[in-house]
Write a structure and sequence with these properties.
4-stranded parallel beta sheet, alpha/beta, 231 residues, TIM Barrel, globular
Length: 231
């Protein structure tokens, strides 16, 4: 809860909460270790909903879940959606939701104030239109191929990819996967309406856990990202 309020104070517009999965296919080593730590400490989907309840007592910053479809499926789709609405979750990024099953899931969300945020990658070329045409919230644009994690460079075709996405939707585009710090933000900010930072924040949590400095470390880092956006 402290981390979320600190990140909001430092300038985060939206906070993404990952629900741990034992087999996180799209995640790199940093997020895999975080998921393992959470599972070892008994964190499950109900524990995450309890955390959202506590966050909502302190702040109304938009909260988005990043999770895998099998987590929702095991919990029960309608039960999950109801709980997400009750606690105040604003959006869902489902890393492995196939395009073919998305319309069914979107139907279940249709009367709810919850956005289903699509992931779109440079490899999706001929499917980009279908993926983004009925999107809401924002479009999660994957900056490069492979798993999540900190990178030093981005796809050469990023600009044309982002232009293609913009051609088919007016929904804000946010670039994620591999955004390591302020320099990466400066590189990417002119290509999109938002930048998503995951692994680099989790690294700072990981490094600060032993001496309990993780909250301020993350706050300072998020603030440096916000400054880079505003330059």
């Amino acid at each position: 809860v402290k981390l979320v309020t600190e990140m909001e104070k430092a300038g985060a517009d939206i906070v993404e909460l990952g629900i741990p999965n034992a087999d996180p296919l799209a995640d790199g080593p940093v997020i895999q270790r975080a998921a393992q730590r959470a599972l070892t400490n008994g964190v499950n989907i109900d524990a995450v909903f309890d955390t959202v309840d506590r966050i909502r007592e302190k702040t109304q910053v938009p909260l988005v879940f990043l999770l895998y479809y099998n987590t929702i499926f095991r919990y029960g789709i309608s039960r999950f959606i109801q709980k997400a609405e009750e606690t105040g979750v604003d959006g869902l990024i489902i890393a492995d939701l196939p395009l073919e099953e998305r319309s069914e899931f979107k139907e279940a969300l249709s009367e709810k104030p919850i956005d289903l945020i699509p992931l779109v990658a440079p490899t999706s070329k001929e499917r980009i239109k279908t993926i983004v045409e009925d999107a809401s919230g924002f479009i999660y644009c994957v900056s490069s191929l492979g798993v999540t994690g900190v990178r030093t460079s981005f796809s050469q075709d990023l600009e044309s990819f982002m232009q293609t996405v913009a051609k088919f939707t007016k929904v804000p585009r946010a670039i994620g996967f591999g955004v390591s710090g302020p320099d990466a933000v400066r590189t990417l900010k002119n290509h999109a309406e938002g930048v998503i930072v995951g692994s680099a924040i989790i690294q700072r949590i990981e490094h600060g856990l032993s001496d309990q400095t993780h909250v301020e470390k993350v706050g300072r880092f998020v603030n440096s990202l916000k400054k880079a956006i505003r330059e």
